[in-house]
Amino acid sequence: MNKFLVSASAVAIALTASVGVAAARDQIRIVGSSTVFPYNQAVAEEYSSKTGNPAPVVESLGTGGGFRAFCGGIGPDHADITGASRAITKSEKELCASNGVTDITEALIGYDGLSLAISRKNDADWDLTEEQIFRAVAAELPNEAGELVPNPNQTWADVDSSLPATKIVIIGPPPTSGTRDAFVELTLHDGCSAMPFFAELKKTDRDAWNVACSRVRQDGLFVEAGENDNLIVQSLDGDVNAIGIFGYSFLYENSDKLKGVAINGVEPTFDTIADGSYPVARPLFFYVKNAHRGVIPGMNEFLEEYMSEEALAAGGYLAERGLTPLSEEKILEVREAVTGGKKLEM
Amino acid sequence: MAAVETTGSGARTIDWSSDEFKKRRSRRYAADRRLQYYGIAAIATALGLLAILITSLVMTGYTAFTQTMVSVQITLDDERIDRNDVFGANWRNIVRDAFKAATPGLETADERAYFAMFTNNAPFLVRDRVVADPRLVGTTVTFTIPMADPVDQLAKGQIDRSTPESQRRVSDQQIAWFDGLAQQGMISRPFNTGLFFNADSRFPELAGLAGAISGSFWALMVCFFISFPCGIAAAIYLEEFAPKNKLTDLIEVNINNLAAVPSVVFGLLALAVFIGWFNMPRSIPLVGGLALALMTLPTIIIVTRASLKSVPSSIREAALGIGASKHEVIMHHILPLAMPTILTGTIIGLAQALGETAPLLLIGMNAFITSPPAGILEPATALPTQIFIWADSPERGFVSRTSAAILVLLGFLITMNAIAIFLRQRFERRW
Fold it and tell me: Which Pfam families match (chain B) (predicted)?
């Protein structure tokens, strides 16, 4: 027993001591947005299968969390690449610069279509305008006297008499999600500005406008599901009148159960998202730390794989995963920027 | 006649057979029975919920334990494969030609849809097998290759053939091709060994738990080798040597409190200390194991102290009586006698650590990694975090794989608890 204890503690000490060895690393580390995560996954797997190099480690930390890890500094302890579902902000650039990360390259990889969908068991053909969506979802709407009151609409017929008289149920992502930010920015803000009352408010008091147009009703008609889009898909299957909001790839994968809700007469499809006629789409990026190229093994080969025709082009494997691809000229431009290590203005 | 009568001398006589007492009695019996029924109802509710959980997992998960495969003959031509550079051959074309040969009369325009029926990584699977065994070059070998997820779902009846073509992931043409392959006897659906021997993949047909199982194994090893010796040493000191004073009381209270601290707190601690200060890399089982060790340590200390306490003092006194030193008493007598209980407690503590997700999420053990870790310093996932990743994937095949992974995790937990029960039954001494 005595010997066992001694050897066990020796092993424990050896484990703790071996940590110093772990500093160098031979695999690429990718962090960032959960929306870009599936595309990073795809390229990472393809790269490692093709070259036989160690598999990159891909983590989903969210756009903001990704930049915090990415901008932490230079060296093997910090991530090499981060995905983002929006462009880098000024404060994130400052954070990067303050930690010595000054040479980064930005790459636009395509667009993410956010889709509204409903169960196929629902008989009606759904075609909404952004204003109707806003009227259904907003926390407060102006009444006839021009005062903001809690949203009185209970059924879609209350929103617009041409719509079915079924109860409004919208299942969407929580405020922490990038998908929610995109929904608020791309749909609610537009729908809000289409109402004369708020258009007026935008001119006089932008902050109040921003608050009023971003707030979502809390009376139970807008259901905040978790970050898990699969859960939303399942709830839609269970409630025929519920409309869900999630990334287009989930609608594409479940097209036997769900149908898209058209916005302004446009159905969500790859084509309508790519040409911008489906209004709820956002650009996706990744950012590369140029100081790590040539230091972390395989960085250049990985970027080559990411920029390859097979990955990025229309019909490439990223498009198969749900990414809406860029136009051909744009792909050439991005490829040149990435291979040349074009420095982002800080 | 009244039920209770006071006789002249003051003594009371009770008529037990009176109606009032019969009623009282039946009320008390009824209360007994009700209490019993509440208990049975509670157990039935618990068992019912458990049954619902397991049934729903099995119902959604069982399909993931088989995988639709296609057996295809591939000619490994000398002309197309350079024996000195097997890795660099054009495997994509070699494999595609073999697939094409299985369906004669395939039009060029349809090729893309046709190849989409087979797993995207088929060329790599063939390549890796030939690289591992270069003697295959120059022969014709039958390879069994997984079908892509939509076709797998079709074969398993998860995709209904009667739905309109635009509403399903496989086209009528693909169904016709699939039926053609099936008629030639090329389609089989064996047990899905890949689920246990493949690492993670973005393709459900290839995704497996090997990375997660080995990651969990390494993390639990680290956890065991740190928390077991530390826990026992701490418990021996506190139980046998420590003076009884305010300080040791404080330590005791704190250990009991630590056992109840939510595990996410230990994750934050590991993030700040091991990754922040000690600059250890993220996502490695060493850090995961350390975080789990912090969580398991208090449990082991408490169990060890309790089992040391339960060894009868007669043994201690007898050993001391014949001149054994304190060290000998503890190491030769008390600890060996207490060991079965300590081991039982440790295994239950480790089983708890195995199912723990929150601390691992914080230290990045929920990354996507397509190769299993070879040691405690290589990035890995763990079983619960793998479930977490799969649950969030859009592909239909991951729905059943998530349930299957949960069943695998439950299987490990049941095994560990069974070992703990076995140890307790077999070796525990009762005094």
Answer: BPD_transp_1 (PF00528), DUF3333 (PF11812)
Find out whether A246 and A114 touch, Cβ atoms under 8 Å: yes
Q: Does residue B139 contact residue B218 with C-beta atoms inside 8 Å?
A: no
Domain that holds residue B225: 210-427
CA pseudo-torsion sign B44, B47, B52, B55: negative
Does pLDDT of A18 surpass 60? Answer: no
What's the CA gap between B327 and A317, in Å, rounded? 67
> Is the overall model pTM greater than 0.90, yes or no?
no
Q: Within 10 Å of residue B431's Cβ, how many Cβ atoms? A: 8
Query: Helix, strand or coil for residue A102?
Result: coil
The whole-angstrom separation of Cα A271 and Cα A145 is 43
The pLDDT of residue B253: 92
Q: What is the pLDDT of residue B77?
A: 84
Inter-chain contact A77–B159, Cβ cutoff 8 Å? no
The DSSP element (H or E) to which A322 belongs, if any, is: none
Phi and psi, residue A331, nearest 5°: -60, -45
d(CA B355, CA A167): 40
In angstroms, the separation between the Cα of residue B300 and the nearest Cα of chain A is 15
Contacts of residue A253, defined as CB under 8 A and 6 or more positions apart, other chains included, come to A322, B169, B394, B395, B396
ipTM of the prediction: 0.79
pLDDT in tens, B366-379: 899 998 998 899 99
Partners of residue B70 on adjacent β-strands: B145, B187
Is residue B204 assigned to a domain? no
pLDDT over 90, % of chain A:
23
End residue of a domain, out of B12, B37, B63: B63
The tokens describing B186, both together, are 């090329």
- Looking at the structure, tell me whether residues B81 and B171 fall in a common domain: yes
Phi, psi of A132 (to 5 degrees): -60, -40
Task: Examine the domain organization and report whether B78 and B114 are in the same domain.
Answer: yes
Sheet holding B140-146, edge to edge: B140-146, B69-75, B187-188
Reduce the DSSP state of residue B217 to 3 states and report it.
helix
Q: Which residue of B has its CA nearest to A40?
A: B368
Structural domains of chain A, with CATH = 26-112+282-340 (3.40.190.10), 113-281 (3.40.190.10)
- Of B63, B95, B113, the position where a domain reaches its end is B63
CB within 8 Å: B379 and A230: no
Task: Answer yes or no: do B36 and B73 share one domain.
Answer: no
Q: Which residues of B touch A50 (CB under 8 A)?
A: 124
Q: Tell me which residues of chain B have a pLDDT lower than 50.
A: 1
- With beta carbons under 8 A apart, name residues in chain A contacting B360: none
Residue A17 has a pLDDT of 47
**Does the CB of B421 have a partner CB in chain A at under 8 Å?**
no
Tokens of B372: 């299993």
**B98 domain residue, yes or no:** yes
